[in-house]
Amino acid sequence: MKKFNLFSLAVAGMLALCVFGCQKKDAATTATANQDEISAATKSQITSLGFSTENARKVAGGYLVEGDILLSEANLTEKAETAHLSVAETEQYRTTNLVKALPRVITISVTNLPAVYGNAVDAMITRYNNLGLRFTFQRAAAGTTGQINVIGFNEGPSGGYITLGSSGFPTASGNPYSEIKMNTNPAAYGANPNLLYLTSVLQHEVGHCIGFRHTDYSNRAYSCGGTAVNEGQSNVGAIQIPGTPSGPDAASFMLACSNGGDRTFNANDVKAINYLYK
Ligand SMILES: [Zn+2]
User: Which positions ≥6 away from 232 have C-beta within 8 Å?
Assistant: First the structure.
């Protein structure tokens, strides 16, 4: 998930030195190659999975696409069970793999992050569990790593945006994606991160972990502004969810870019989650 960052535009020149300096010191979280270094074959694989290659980045563990979704090498080559859900024009979700072996409990751990991140994970868990789905989240036992582990990374603004967090999609065997990265750079959430803001971003990243794509994937400019990016629907099926509106809906928790506030499930989001997991 990303946030438009006016500050970074205003002082981009001044900031550039700092950003690059910081990134060099932090090899684990720095993009190791730019888009030009992604091969044509890989770009073609990304496209065939239905994702935009615009601003795709090579990062540790795979390729970061659409701002906050990590595609592993395995994701690129596996034959995913796919479904395309159309809720409304700007309420579209596409799942690759889904979480299987339901009902089940999914454990979540938080590693090396300030207390407020753990509190936000707890609040996020409550929001999902209140939906009464066929999976429930719970915190992993202290000192153990959960099936989803939340860790930090530190990355400043780039290109007018800052990455708030990132995650990926379920595995082909039906497990949720196992890692959520949250940006601890002060430009992301400030020196004292707001609990509900963190909660909403975690809610969004967990949405990817269980198979949701961006609501506005067909036009990311809807929530992010800038140039319209439409990566197309790929060769997956389409399933219309009955009883959902046909007009735009600006409040989905899976919009690509944050509004900087506490965005949670709206009525259409709940319909889509229920459709997949209730
Ligand atoms: Zn996202």
Answer: 50
- Whether 2 is covered by a domain: the verdict is no
- What CATH number does residue 153 fall under? 3.40.390.10
DSSP codes joined into one string, 48-85? HTT---TT-EEETTEEEETTTEEEPHHHHHS----EEE
- This prediction has a pTM of 0.81
Question: What is the number of domains present in the chain?
Answer: 1
Parent domain of 117: 8-277
Instruction: Give the model's confidence band at 126: pLDDT under 50 very low, under 70 low, under 90 confident, else very high.
Output: very high
Structure-token pair, residue 107 = 């454990």
Contacts of 130 (CB under 8 A, 6+ apart): none
For residue 18, the CA-to-ligand 1 centroid distance in Å is 26
Q: Give the Å distance between the CA of 180 and the centre of ligand 1.
A: 11
